[in-house]
Amino acid sequence: MFHDRIEIISPGGLSSGITEDEYLLGKLSVLRIRNLANVCYRLGGVEIFGTGITKIKQLYEEGLMQSYFEVSENTIKIVPPSF
Asked: Could you tell me the pTM of the whole model?
C-alpha cells in the first residue's frame, strides 16, 4: 500500500500456455494451488474459479480511471484506481 495507490502483486507470472491477452480478457484460467482454491471456494471466498480479472475490470468500467495491469514473466501486478 502506498499513500496514493494499492498494488496487488502475484508472483509467478502467467501459467504455461496462457497469453497475456487471454488473461486480461478473462477467457482462460488455470488453478495453480487446487487445494487452496477448493478451501477458499468452500469458505465462500470465491464463487466461481477464474472470474477475478473480469470482476476487477467490471467494478471500474464506468469510472474515469481503469485498473492498470502489468504482466511480466515472473509477476502480475494490478493497480486499481485510487479514490
From this structure: 0.65
